[in-house]
Amino acid sequence: MDVTEVKVRRKKKLGSYPYVSVVFSITLALFVIGLFGLLLLYANKLTQVIQENVEIQVFLNQTISPSDRLKIQKTLANKEYIEPQEGQEAIIFISKEEAAQEFIEETGEDFRQFLGENPLRDAFVIHVKPEYYAPRELSKIKLDIERLRGVFEVAYVESLIDAINRNVTKISVVLVGFAVLLMIIVTILINNTIRLALFSQRFLIRSMQLVGATASFIQRPFLTRSLLHGILGGIFAGGLLFAIIQYAQQQIDDLSQLQSTQELIVLLVSLLVLGGLVGFISTYRAVKKYLGMSLDQLY
Length: 299
Fold this sequence. Notes:
Elements: H1 19-52, E1 56-60, H2 66-77, E2 91-94, H3 96-107, H4 112-115, E3 123-126, H5 135-146, E4 151-155, H6 158-199, H7 202-210, H8 215-251, H9 261-291, H10 295-298
Helix pairs in contact: 1-6, 1-8, 1-9, 6-9, 8-9
């Protein structure tokens, strides 16, 4: 008696395709985007920290009275370019005695013994907001403060400010250019992955057309699944990125100081939106392409 093998094949469902490879590709692509986004956030925060630690010193006249000194401090406190420091006063006063003592502790030499006096001056130390770190803005701030009665001189390390501004500009141009290139590559990668996955569905799409199904009816299940797969890829990529951040914080001291919880949340949400959006658009284009093909072109 002959034994006939019966192969039971699962019926293809409209909109179904090997989604594991698609989700994996989307996850990998979004993870790379997330790492680069995290690098941008850290670089921006590091630049801000460097700028905030650049001090501007306001030296006062030797014969200034305490009332005039207090008046200058109040005037400076009302300036729109002053940046308050977290956990510190916005304007720090350093007396000439404190400055002399600090100098002696650093050098080990007491210059007052052979000079017979303390030539240093009382000074205020201020920090300005990041948007005022352009050379032209700093020059305006310097002139503005030096007009105050009782102010002898305003000093800051101009070479350091210029170097910071030049490097920030160069880094920004490079990072933005690389970000655009990376976005294009990731979009193409996800688009090609989805098109290859939908290639196996081209005859099913054609069959649905032949029985009178509308284009929107055929597209709907594909678009729904692609949107879910994109969001799922974003969730996996966000989870991997969060794990990397936790590990890096354990290995690198003070890394958490360069991290903003709000910006990190925005980055993770952006991965979800980007995954869903790119998956949706790529699927829409692929299905529309197969809908417009003739039977000969499908082979």
